Amino acid sequence: MLSKNVVKEVLNISIPAIAEAAVYTLMSMFDTMIIGNYGGNKAVSAVGISNEILNACVVIFITIGLSIGITSFVSRSIGARDKKEAEEYASIGFVIGIFLSFILCYGLFIFSRTILQIAGARGGVLDLSDTYTRITIVSIFFNMLINIISSILRGYGNTYTPFVASLIVAALKIVFDLALIFGITAPKMGVIGAAVASVISQFFGFIFLLLYLLIKSEVKIRLRYMIKLHTGKVKNLLFLAIPSSMEEAAFSTSRLLGTFIIMRAGTIPFAANQIANIVESMSFMPGMGFGTAATTLVGLKIGERNYKKAKEYGYACALGAVIMMGVFGIVFLLMPGFLVDLFVNEDERKVVYLASLCLFIGAFEQPSIALSLVFAGALKGAGDAKSPFIVSLLTSWLIRVPLIFYFIRILKLSIIYVWWITVIQWTVDAILMFIYFEKRLNKLG
């Protein structure tokens, strides 16, 4: 049985993290709804392929890469009651984050059109997507820095402030979306207005978090640690961040490759897949939130050398994620058409039909996604990023990519087969993550 204190601590950290994920997800959904109703499946395709590429880069190198490393080391240092070391890791991570974010954004800007062409974008979709991408890259830079600062705060259990930042970003994004896309109190810019709105909202979110980090944060960045980087700690951080990045890279690149294959099947299957993914992303909020809590709480307990408690926190996070994501799964089973219908106009019935079938199938993968996200986060909190990488590599490239290529590219079957494939992938992924978590904690204990 889980103690009340464990449940309380898990909820105190996970609920703001879930709320933050919910805000960003709903913001993305609202953005897609506006664009879909404004420009139909071509506009969704243009924006969708751009966002797939940019978001993959952010998640691979920052959100799941460097940020996880920072949270893990800060949490373990705080657990060991070594605030000085926590601030040193935070400062080192911040410097690396700025440098990495700039290099990534510069490369994406220079090679934007080439990347989109490789992805399969053509004609008007390519032109629109290229312009949208180049503007959005500026917002991505600020988004990466938001992720870095948030990871420092989460390291000592502060998930509330990143949530407040998400409210600021989302509120500004929605206001400027309406103003710029449709020309309400501003020049009508269409899809490009959505990109400009992203730049404005992410910039102010970054400013808010930076001021909080410098003035009020329990763990602050220190100039002396930023100027004179400790080589050993840089290596420690990178040795955890790199496998974590590689884990997400294995998954995201396989997902991108699947997206490219689907893109070549036509705009209707692609738009249906994108919309179903957007709707399903609602259910990731609990998994991401409890995964964040697992990284922080397991890291804190590992720092205290309380391995039994670390395992208990991992199980508590997993249970919470499964229950919440299971509720979303039931909703996807009962009303997929209603949810999909919010994203497209009445002329796009083929898109609605396909997306509804995809979402229905997606209901069956919710419990396994929950377990995978939580145990991967718990492993990283325990300082093990290699095991999640191995699992992600195996399930992404031995299950997802070959089967999608075979069923969609070779046999040219319906897009719904992609979703049955991901059900299989996540099931295997969850089982392996749990096995590695058990082995890691038993070895430490």
UniProtKB/TrEMBL annotation:
Membrane topology according to the record: Multi-pass membrane protein
GO CC annotations on file: plasma membrane
Protein name: Probable multidrug resistance protein NorM
Organism: Clostridium aciditolerans
GO molecular function, a single term: antiporter activity
Biological process according to GO: monoatomic ion transport
Keywords carried by this UniProt record: Antiport, Cell membrane, Ion transport, Membrane, Transmembrane, Transmembrane helix, Transport
Compartments it resides in: Cell membrane
InterPro entries referenced in this protein's UniProt entry, alphabetically: MATE_fam, MATE_MdtK, MdtK-like
PANTHER family in UniProt: DRUG_SODIUM ANTIPORTER (PTHR43298:SF4), MULTIDRUG RESISTANCE PROTEIN NORM-RELATED (PTHR43298)
Pfam families tied to this protein: MatE
Main location: membrane
TM spans (from-to): 21-41, 53-77, 89-111, 131-153, 160-184, 190-215, 315-339, 351-377, 389-408, 414-437
Chain's role: Multidrug efflux pump.
